[in-house]
Amino acid sequence: MRVREHGADSMTKFVFVTGGVSSSLGKGLTASSLGRLLKSRGLKVTMCKLDPYINVDPGTMNPGEHGEVFVTDDGGETDLDLGHYERFIDESLSRMSNTTTGAIYSSVIAKERRGDYLGKTVQVIPHVTDEIKERLRRLSSVGADVVIVEIGGTVGDIEIVPFIEAIRQYRRDAGRDNVCYVHLTLVPYLAPSGEQKTKPTQHSVTELRSRGIQPDVIVCRSDQPISDSLKRKISLLCDVQISAVISAVDAPSIYDIPMTLHHEGLDTIVCQTLGIDLAEHPIDLRAWEEVVRRVHSSTQHVRIGVIGKYVTMPDAYLSVGEAIRHAGFAVGVKTDIEWLEAERVPGEIDADRLRGLDGIIVPGGFGERGFEGMIAAAKISRDFGIPYLGICLGMQVMVIEFARDVLGLSDANSTEMSTTTSSPVIALMAEQMEVTDMGGTMRLGACPAMLKAGSVVAELYGATVVSERHRHRYEFNSRYTEQFEDAGMMCSGASPDGRLIEFVEIPEHPFFVGTQAHPEFKSRPDRPHPLFYGLIKAAAARAEGRTPHIIDVETASSTH
Ligand code: GLN
Q1: For a FRET experiment, which of 111, 215, 343, 482 has its CA 20 to 30 Å from that of 90?
Q2: Are residues 337 and 366 in the same domain?
Q3: How far apart are CA 463 and CA 452, in angstroms?
Q4: Residue 332 and residue 285 share a domain
Q5: Is 434 within a domain?
Q6: 520 among known catalytic residues
Q7: Could you read off the pLDDT of 35-78 as tens digits, one per residue?
Q8: Residue where one domain finishes, among candidates 244, 267, 290
């Protein structure tokens, strides 16, 4: 790597992204966009999120409150920002890329119990901060030129202090030129005075400085561009170069953000701070420009209904939404997503309403609420030929609906929803397994599957061996395989030992496909996931009024 040949700077470089003033300013997207820009300069980039909450990982957190749990290949249950990272830098991350206060403390306490601290008093400084720094150092071992670390929360939060202290020390440990601090703030526009205000930024930087960190770059979020004179003011008051004051104005889509930040010079100032030679690393943004062009070029609208439990919090299905959009970019249509609450199906949201959709997705989920509504939606999709993609719980739903309606097993169910069902078509992997630790009983992370040649899924993937990420406890009960296949639902993919059914489909339907995995985590803006591509292609045909039995095999498989 050229970057590592700068003599003394043989270390991985670190960019720390902190936020001030307010939450939800888009720190994750800013960090991801920077990642994309640095990658477009030929640098190898990896990313990490430090989360100040006490949960050991987000696996047990309510998605309706905290958003989706993003699953990595190695089975890490991580913060949804890792999804943005993967989609923007196009690298698969691991559980190493997400650390919480809970994880840090549980490891420090385990060491203390083992006697590793040799009788010392265990304290936040140095023991907790050392544990944080150790995790950062481990990231240097993955061979990246630059590690971008986003610190969750805002400066001034009580829980964030050990993380800020650890990243402050990190510059001393790694060397000045190996660390860059980027601070994200808000520059509000006050209508009565007709002015943009810099005071919140000044206060936020003062707070950061009180913890010993002087930012190298300030990214200012605002709804209107920041004028040069305002930049001069922020530069003077916060003691950064003018070129280090970056205006991050609201963008029409998240995919525009890397371009906006590049034009503002974010990657240039970060490289300069880290001693990365810009001439040696010219930027090539052609691939991303093509993504942006596709984002804005489609005109035909396709209506996709997502029928789930947490729809009032669309972040609960963040990756599903992104995967739908990515497929839309590739098919060349604009996807209008309708988030529909499963509990309101089929009452308020009736068959007529659902028939007005071009495609339906039932995403993953846990628990009974809304389950029967999802079953009703699957039935309507099957009966009326509406393209349907079932993801994890959404596959279980289509299996149960088929069992009830076609196989005549009227009380068919998942043992998650009914322990007394006489037809447990979905059941625990090992029913005898004692479920005591809620965090430890899931099938998590990447698992291979073998697809049946000639099936819709095999044609879409363009392969018969695939790998997808999982996060579930219940499985298709293979006792029923033959009955389903005889009646027209094909088990089109299974684990290599054949025991676990991974994909089902109805070949006679325009598009009725389910997977026990979570394909949404592997979709990329320029490489949509084949199953989403298949759904959107079928949905676009329905929108145009054609019979959508059309998997355009060649185009589909060449996109992944
Ligand atoms: N609740 C179901 C299970 O545990 C589905 C989980 C999911 O959709 N991620 O198997």
Answers
A1: 215
A2: yes
A3: 10
A4: no
A5: no
A6: yes
A7: 999 999 999 999 999 999 999 988 888 888 889 999 999 999 99
A8: 290
CATH code of 85's domain? 3.40.50.300
Rounded to the nearest angstrom, the distance between the alpha carbon of 394 and the centre of ligand 1 is 9
Tens-place pLDDT, residues 141-198: 888 999 999 999 999 899 999 999 999 999 999 999 999 999 999 999 998 888 899 9
Distance 471 CA to ligand 1 centre (A): 7
Residue 96: Cβ-neighbour burial (10 angstroms; 0-12, 13-18, 19+): middle
CB–CB of 513/459 below 8 Å? no
Same domain, 504 and 385: yes
Residues 522-534 have pLDDT tens digits of: 999 999 999 999 9
Kindly give the interhelix angle for 129-140 and 161-174, rounded to the nearest 10 degrees.
50
Residues whose CB falls within 8 Å of the CB of residue 134, separated by 6 or more in sequence, listed in order: none
pLDDT tens digits along 289-309: 999 999 998 888 999 999 999
Q: 94 and 181 share a domain? A: yes
Measured in degrees and rounded to the nearest 5, phi and psi for residue 38 equal: -65, -40
The helix/strand/coil state of 398 is helix
502 and 451, same domain (yes or no) = yes
Q: What single-letter amino acid sits at 362? A: V
The secondary structure of residue 495, as a DSSP letter, is: -
Instruction: Tell me, using a 6 A CB cutoff, whether residue 41 lines ligand 1.
Output: no
Mark whether 311 and 269 lie in a shared domain.
no
Q: Looking at the domain assignment, is residue 430 inside a domain?
A: no
Tell me, in angstroms, the distance from the centre of ligand 1 to residue 475's CA.
Answer: 9
User: What is the domain count for the chain?
Assistant: 2
Cis preceding linkage at 346, omega within 30: yes
